[in-house]
Amino acid sequence: MTISTDAELISTSLSGNNEAFVELVERHEAAVWAYLVRRAGRQVAEDLLAEVWTGAYASRRRYDLSFPEARPWLFGIARNTLRRHWRSGTVEDPVADMSDVSCVSDPWSREDDRLDGQMLFHRVLATLPPDERNVLLLVAWEQLSVADAARVLEIPAGTARRLLHQARLALKSAPEMMTILTESNDAKERRCNSTREIQ
């Protein structure tokens, strides 16, 4: 029999089948890893990932089996793990991962443009109130629905919708966003021109 939902995997693991929990981990390890890396950097993510899975295993009895998808629950555990980490020590800035840079020509001008845009975007995000920023990042980066983002943050779905709307309005009106969009278009134009020159 194939188990299709996360809730079924958790239920099966509660009956003593640890392989079911291993399958749950395999389904969501990439998403949980990316969530941690985007918020705390690769080194901290490596340090905390096992703690997230240990916490999930220990608290699986409290999982609401009426939700077939466990990713929001796992992000909530990851969020709480990050909070404990930040309360217990110094906060590290996320570091851009340069390991996947591949380009036929010199990649550094493209990477400079990307990193400059990222820094500006992070500055704009930092101006948002934490609740608005959290909802926006869960919906935009983690690809959660607004209702699932509300589950992660343990707030009503209506509140999450309002916070997302406020965050989007704030980003639209931020002058730095125009800079990011303009610089992004300029960078694309430069790449197109340099490609034409090579040909």
Question: How are the SSEs ordered, and which strands pair?
Answer:
Elements: H1 6-14, H2 18-40, H3 42-59, H4 71-88, H5 108-126, H6 130-140, H7 146-153, H8 157-173, H9 175-198
Describe the overall structure.
The protein is 74% helix and 0% strand. With 199 residues, the chain is mostly helical. It has a domain of 95 residues: RNA polymerase sigma factor, region 2, helix turn helix motif (Rna Polymerase Sigma Factor, Chain: A). Helix 2 crosses helix 4.
Concise overview:
With 199 residues, the protein is mainly α.
- How many E strands? 0
Q: What would CATH call the homologous superfamily of the domain at 1-95?
A: RNA polymerase sigma factor, region 2, helix turn helix motif
Please summarize the sheet with the most strands. Answer: none
Output the helix-strand order: HHHHHHHHH
Intertermini distance: 57 Å
Specify the structural class. Answer: mainly alpha
- How many helices? The count is 9
- On the 0 to 100 scale, the average pLDDT is 79
User: According to CATH, what is the class of the domain at 1-95?
Assistant: Mainly Alpha
- Overall shape: it is globular
CATH topology annotation of the domain at 1-95? Rna Polymerase Sigma Factor, Chain: A
Report strand %.
under 5%
User: Can you tell me the residue ranges where pLDDT is under 50 for at least 5 consecutive residues?
Assistant: 91-116
CATH architecture of the domain at 1-95: Orthogonal Bundle
Helix content: over 70%
Radius of gyration: 20 Å
